[in-house]
Amino acid sequence: MKKIGLLGGTFDPPHLGHLLIAEEVYATLGLDEIWFIPSYEPPHKQKSGTRAEHRVEMVEAAIKDNPNFSINTVEIERRGKSYTIDTVKTLKTRYPAYSFYFIIGGDMVEYLPKWHRIEELADLVQFVGVKREDYQFQTQFPVLEVSIPRVDVSSTMIRERIAGGRSVRYLIPDEVFYVIKEYHLYETE
User: How confident is the model at residue 81 (pLDDT cuts 50, 70, 90)?
Assistant: First the structure.
């Protein structure tokens, strides 16, 4: 049975923190692959101002050199708000022999009780919480813990830096920067 890590997000843009999380979970849990799943419209935050096809292209650029990473566009294809339960059910139907590990930030672990249909979701997927060494999870749900080095980078910070004309070198892969430049993304946030 293949073990697949799922890393969802808007990836607006994808940055080195996303890649570090994926690599640490992949290596620590001995997974077969990590699938990056860009959302079309996340249910918990404002819709991205960046077109879905540009975010997909940025993810493809970010992961192209890692044979263990791939992109799955199930949420982009669905359109509209994407709830994790719908995504996981679709993936379980398409890949019944795979087991899925849904990767979430340590800060999201405490919000699991508020997730849409969480009881059903917890039966379908293994949650993986990424955390700093000194952080302890508080949850009633089974969550595997993976410690990651702390990297203070966010998509919001990168968008703001680009809009302000500041460098984002060493925060995003060069290939992602080239996509951003090609489409003039984030220049006037």
Answer: confident
- Written as six digits, the tokens of 43 are 């249910």
Asked whether residue 70 is assigned to any structural domain, the reply reads yes
Query: For residues 109 and 134, what is the distance between their CA atoms, to the nearest angstrom?
Result: 15
Q: Is the pTM of this model over 0.85?
A: yes
Could you tell me if 163 and 1 are in contact, meaning their C-beta atoms sit under 8 angstroms apart? no
Which pLDDT tens digit goes with each residue over 151-186? 889 999 999 999 999 999 999 999 999 999 999 999
DSSP class of residue 115 equals S
Q: Phi/psi of residue 96, each to 5°? A: -65, -20
| CA-to-CA separations, 96 to 3, 82, 103, 139, in angstroms, rounded | 12, 21, 19, 28
Q: Domains in the chain: how many in total?
A: 1
CA distance 108 to 115: 10
Tell me the two tokens of residue 49: 């101002």
Q: Which two tokens stand for residue 8?
A: 């969802």
Residue 100 · residue 92 · CB < 8 Å: yes
Neighbours of 149 (CB within 10 A): 10
Buried b (16+ CB within 10 A) or exposed e, 36-55: bbbbbbbeeeeebebebebb
Structural domain of 131: 3-150
